[in-house]
Amino acid sequence: MRKIWCFLIMLGAILSFGCAPRGDWISETLTLVDVSGTWEGTIRYTRLTQTQRSIRLTLRQSGARVTGEMDGGSRELTYGKIQGRVNGDVFTFEATGIRGEATVDGAEMSGQAGGSQCPCFIVLRRAGRDGNDR
Fold first, then answer.
1. Pick from 99, 93, 87: which is nearest to 67 by CA?
2. Angle CA(33)–CA(36)–CA(38) in degrees, nearest 5?
3. Which class would CATH give 28-126?
4. What 3-state DSSP class applies to 119?
5. Is 46 helix (H, G, I), strand (E, B) or coil?
6. 82 and 89 Cβ atoms separated by less than 8 Å
7. How confident is the model at residue 4 (pLDDT cuts 50, 70, 90)?
8. Which of 114, 49, 53 shows the shortest CA–CA distance to 78?
9. pLDDT of residue 37
10. What 3-state DSSP class applies to 112?
11. How far apart are CA 38 and CA 124, in angstroms?
12. 3-state DSSP call for residue 20?
């Protein structure tokens, strides 16, 4: 009887190895757009006045995870580090004082953001001669 219990315990342990978590399988199976590189464009503030400013994102992507820098091109408009995720063709991001979501369509990214001076609209294009700086 003792041998049967030992056998069942060992069999259960061996079978449980196949059930170990492997990370986010949804992100691994989705086709993710690649947002790596430099993106330049405009951010349009709509809260008090219709102000439009230049903006630049320098992004690095590893799977669905994205990190990088967001620069507003002036001392008054600096965001610093940016982090986010890609889910299909949607890039969600967060930086100092702003968080948003943009849809990526080839060499263009557009969407909305919220924060201390927003709602805002963002339109960006890949930097580089052919729209793809990779």
1. 93
2. 125
3. mainly beta
4. coil
5. coil
6. no
7. confident
8. 53
9. 95
10. strand
11. 10
12. coil
